[in-house]
Amino acid sequence: xxxxxxxxxxxxxxxxxxxxxxxxxxxxxxxxxxxxxxxxxxxxxxxxxxxxxxxxxxxxxxxxxxxxxxxxxxxxxxxxxxxxxxxxxxxxxxxxxxxxxxxxxxxxxxxxxxxxxxxxxxxxxxxxxxxxxxxxxxxxxxxxxxxxxxxxxxxxxxxxxxxxxxxxxxxxxxxxxxxxxxxxxxxxxxxxxxxxxxxxxxxxxxxxxxxxxxxxxxxxxxxxxxxxxxxxxxxxxxxxxxxxxxxxxxxxxxxxxxxxxxxxxxxxxxxxxxxxxxx
Length: 279
Known about the structure:
Layout: H1 6-12, E1 22-25, H2 43-46, H3 54-57, E2 62-65, E3 84-87, E4 104-109, E5 112-116, E6 126-128, H4 154-164, H5 168-179, H6 199-204, H7 213-230, H8 235-244, H9 246-252, H10 259-277
Parallel strand pairs: 3-5
Antiparallel strand pairs: 1-2, 4-5, 4-6
């Protein structure tokens, strides 16, 4: 019969993981009376281990923690966001025609997208938060004498007028009222380009690039012609629908009682009359 020495058996038994204990006293003392007490750490009570011997029991109101509590999970690395820089002046923004506006210019500089209230000296840019040119009820512009744009995009406007059976003067009046003949404007509602087409309208009118002058004018003219057909050739209602949407015109059975829309319709009619005389 073979006997295994006890010393060898002991060697085969794996050593227990050392337990690290931290003891927190709930009692106050004159030395640590200003330190936080156990009541300030309610989560420690859940991790408490009941003392098992007289030595531990002699410690009054203690909580024993070992190294078996879970460690917090490391934070996942977040994807870096695109570098965007914005700057604004301390002064209000005043257009060259005396109408207060807030215009934000977007352009690229050294690989960084920059938003500024100052127009860049060179390069392409877009204007954001641009308000409909003729929609402000409190506009100080003299619409009967404001300079007209009689030569811009003449061929494109003439072709669109023939294609959709519109007067060129009406197309010019709407472009003037919407954007003052600026191709790169974006309203705070998301309308784009010369005739301020909303993304959904641009898609319906088969406009792929609303900042392309010819595509925008063709799309806007087509939409304007549809509205004139929907409202039996009534220019007031068609223009009101162009500004506020045909649903609002139908709901109010006329020009909606929105100050912006009413101002818009009145100014489009003024511009239309002036462009007809300027031919």
